[in-house]
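[Automated response] Your request has been received and processed.

Submitted sequence:
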Amino acid sequence: MMTEQSLIQQRQKIDQLRQSSSLSPSHAAQLEQSIVSSWQRSSLAEIPKNRLAAPLTDIKQISTSSALSHALEHCAENLKHIAEQSSMVLAVGDIGSTVLWRASCPELRTIADNIHLVEGGQWREELVGTNALALSIKTQQSSCVFSSEHYMPSVQDLVCYASPIIDPYSKQILGVIDLSTHWQKHNSLGLLAAERCASIIQSALLESQKQRLYIRAFSVPQVIFNGKTLTITPRQTEILAILALCPQGLSLDRLHQALYGERKVSMGTLKAEMSQLRDILGGMLGSRPYRLLAHVEADFLQTEQSLDAGYIDSALKLYTGVFLAKTESPFLCAWRDCLESRLSDAIFKANETDVLLKHVARFPEAIDAVERLIELMPKGHPVHQTLLKFQDI
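Generated structure:
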C-alpha cells in the first residue's frame, strides 16, 4: 500500500491537472493516456454539472448476456465474501457498463448507494464521465481510476479497479467487474484483485455452460460447440442461425420456408441436414418443433441486445462484417436488412466521434457513419476534409 503522504500528493497533482484549461504534452505525460482521452470525451459529452449519481434503469428491461447471468448465480457467494473481506464494493456490469449485480462491505454501502453504484446504475462514459467500468470496456483491458481522475465529484473519494470479463469460448467481452474502495486505501495490487475476480466469473462460465453453442455470423462464419470449432456446411450454419433467432422452435414446414423460401428443395434434403446436425451436436437438437437445446450465444444476438439497450459503441464493435453475406435464406436476409437499418439509425444518433471513426476505418463504404461524422466534426478539423472526400466516393 502507498503511504498516506504519497497518495495525498498524487491526488493534489491530479486536481491541479484537472483545473488546467488545457493539458500540455508534459502534463498529459504524467497521466495514463486512457485517462486523458477519457477526460476529453467526458468534457464533450454534455454531462449535467450537478450530476452526483449514475442514472438508474430497470435491469429487468435490459437484454444482457444470459451466460453472464448464469455464471453469477454460480459464484455470487464467493464474490460477496471477497467484497466483505477486502472492505470494498464489488460490482459486475454488462457490456454497456450498467451494473447487474453488486456486493459491498458495510462501511462503503451508503457511499455506493448514494452514487448509484448499485444494480441498474448506468456508468457509461457519456452519462457520468471518466470511471473504471466504462474505461475498461472501452480499452478492453484492466483499468484503475484514482480519486479525482473520476469525472463526477461525488466519486472522487474512491479509487476503482476494473477488469473486462472475457467469454472463455468466444473470446468476446461479456461485461466488466469493478472493485472500489476509499482513495486513501489505494493499492498497486488492486488491479490484480479485479483480474482475479474476473477469472472467478470466467471459471463459473465454463462450469455453467457444459452444453454451449456459439455462432459467429459476421465476416467469416464460424460455429463453436463446447469450445471446439465445428466443421459444417454453410447451409447448416444458416439453419443454426435461424434456430438461434427462433428459440421457441420451428416446424419442418416453417423451417423449410425460412431457409429456402420458394426454391425447389425437397423436404427430404432438409431432413438429411437436420439429421447430420443432430449427430454433430450430440443430441442438442430437438424436434417437433426443431429447436436448439444447448445454451446459445451469437455475435448477432449480442449486437441486437446492445442496440436494444442503447449501447451503440458495443454494437458497432461486434459488427465486424456483413451478416451471412452469401445467404439466400429469405428469413435471414430480412433479418439482416432489419439489423442494418437499426445500426444505421443508431449511427445517426451517435455522438462519440472515436467510435464512428473506428467504424469508418473498418467500413469505408459506411456512408451513414461518414455523414454523421461530418455533422459532428468541426469544419476546421483536418479529418473533416478527408470525410468530405469519402462522401464523394
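Summary generated for your ticket: The chain has a mean pLDDT of 90. Residues 310-317+328-392 form one domain.
If you did not submit this request, please reply to this message.
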